[in-house]
Fold this sequence. Notes:
The protein is mainly alpha-helical. It is built from 7 helices and no strands. The chain has helices at residues 6-11, 32-41, 43-69, 72-82, 84-89, 92-99, 103-111. 4% of the residues are buried.
Amino acid sequence: MIATSLTSFISQQPSFEFVDALENSELLYISRNNFYNLIKEIPEWERFYIKLLEFAYIYQNKRIEELVTLSAGERYDILMKEHPGYIQRLSNKILASYLDVTQETLSRLKSK
């Protein structure tokens, strides 16, 4: 898994985002300069970066569309279909935040 604030990485400005590992994780770091040196030197790395940007764009658009057009119940159903393990592994606080609902609403959705 790759975690970054692409906006901060590209613009070289501080980010308001943060990454919180919810399970034991190994963290690897690459500087922006080294990352762009790899792009210059290794064509596959450039293709990787393009795919990463495409994935990030699609993911963000999907998230925005779901938050704007779908009900809380529909968003919960998608989460259950695409990531059923999250329901058992993550706290209600985290799940509610991801779904953009209150913990009370999430509890109601889970009980259905």
